[in-house]
Structure formats: structure tokens, C-alpha cells
Task: structure prediction
Amino acid sequence: MGKDRVAYWLEIADYDMETAETLYNGGRWLYVAFMCHQVIEKTLKAYWCATQPVDPPYTHNLTRLSEGSGLDAEMDESQIDIIETLIPMNIQARYPEYKDQLAKMLTKETCRNIIDETKHLQQWIKSKL
Result:
């Protein structure tokens, strides 16, 4: 894959990280977590493009993206934990039946932690490029 595809995914992941911070500052907890999922998804897709001979699959599944690119083999337990934390944020933030349950779980402190862990994982993935 060309460097342009990697740059594309990284650019929109960085934009999504800025968006997560903006949402955090506005107290929009549900969407902070959703955007953090998007950050890692897009950063994993950048890694995929840099390391695999084909485009990343059309999926939001962070585990599939990390395993398919082989990056999971290099991840430590805390990195796997943040991926597992973020996986439900993509689906549950979109559907009304899950929003109330998820909204109760997401507090200012929880979201700050999610953002910080997302930034840390994003930077680690970038360091592998």
C-alpha cells in the first residue's frame, strides 16, 4: 500500500482525536468514547496499509484489525485491554437500546482515562510505522 493511504488514515485519526477532546470539553461522554474507538480503528487501518499487501477490511472490529495486521502479537495486556474497552463503544453508541446503559458507565473521569489510554495506544501504533 502506498504511503498516501497510511497518511490518509493517520490524518483522519488525528482529527478524530481532536474531536474526542472537544466532545470531552463539552461533556458529551457517550461520543467521546465513540470517537476514541474511531481513532484506534483508523490508526490500525493505517498500520494495516503500511504492513499488508491489501487494503484493510471494511470492519469496525478492532480485534480483527489488530490480529489481521499481526500487531496484536506485539501488544501488551494494557493495550489489549483498551481495545476491549473500546470495541463496544462503536456499536452501543449508535443504538438507543444501549445508549442509556453506556451513558451511565461513562463519567468525566472514565472518559478522561479512555482518551489518555487511546492517545497512548495511538502513539504506540504510530511508532511501529
